[in-house]
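Extended Data, panel c. Modelled sequence:
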Amino acid sequence: MQDLGDRMPAPGRRSRLAWLWSRIGHDLAVDLGTANTLIVVRGRGLVVFQPSCVAVDRARERMIAVGADAREMLGRAPAPIEVIRPLSSGVISDYDAAQHMLREFILRVHHRRRFVKPRIVVCVPSGVTPVARRAVEEAALDAGARRVVIVSEPLAAAVGAGLPVEEARGSMVVDIGGGTTEVAVFVLGGVVVSASVPVAGDAIDQAIAVHLRKEHGVQIGERMAERLKIRGAAARPGLRDVLVEFPAKDLSTGRPRRLRVSSDELAEAIEEPVAQIVDAVVGVLERTPPEVVPDLAGSGITMTGGGSLLVGLDELLSSETAVAVRIDPEPMTCVVRGAGILLDRLRIGPPRPPMGNVRSRARFAARARGRQGPPRA
């Protein structure tokens, strides 16, 4: 496994066997997200945009659906069938389900060809442990990959958004996904300061469901909570004037019940997770070196991820940080697009040194110096 972490990879040179490797399997960039899994194929663009869900028949111990088909069964399937979300807060929580899901998506990309061995760049949250990164690598290898490169989500998001991460001036990205919020400041291709908090779109959905349960005595599912967030929620009261009507289950009688909630009430319901996201961004700014702060004041903060589409969140961050905030034109696909750019950069890699004895490594180094030519005076 190659772990780039939060550093931009150095460009290498094209392999002489590139044509052969393309026959074995396409090179893929994968955003293995808590809510959605996205895959970009080199030369073809985005080919997979599916929910990270797997439906398993426990009686027969086999997978019966993946992606959108499995999500349709969420909360509706009978007892032998269990719908699993393999990732939680950006970390694999069910290894077998994650491996089977990734394998199915790889087969779809390769038109059900069984004997394929693609190279894969996988994005993971910057705050995950080495054990969690190793689990992602093993899941990708078991799914059929021949080589796995791990890259952090904030780096991929910054590259996908077109930020000048390799320049000497600072740039800041806030990636709000389904399970985590990633905040990072980049200078010269590396992270100066960053933060990763397990609060994002799923936490906002849960806050809406908990509020309705406490205040109105009704119960709703995950999908309904997400619909309410999209249709009526805002980062703070007063930004939207919407009255949302929806069906729910009355906890006292168990019968269906129609309920109306205002956008201001939904904004109050999600106040706590929104405040945690804002605190994470403010905390990163407070720890940013004073030499980099003027760069951020000029270039602003770039928001990516599906959570950035919450109405008024960019305005709230701008008011709390006194820095201009912009949302990427395609925030949902920004991370996987950046991973695709890194994949194209990695297709060329410098020749690896041999794993032999000291003498063979010395010959390898001498040949490398010969290719570079004599030193300049």
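DSSP finds 13 helices and 19 strands in the chain. This feature is highlighted in the accompanying rendering.
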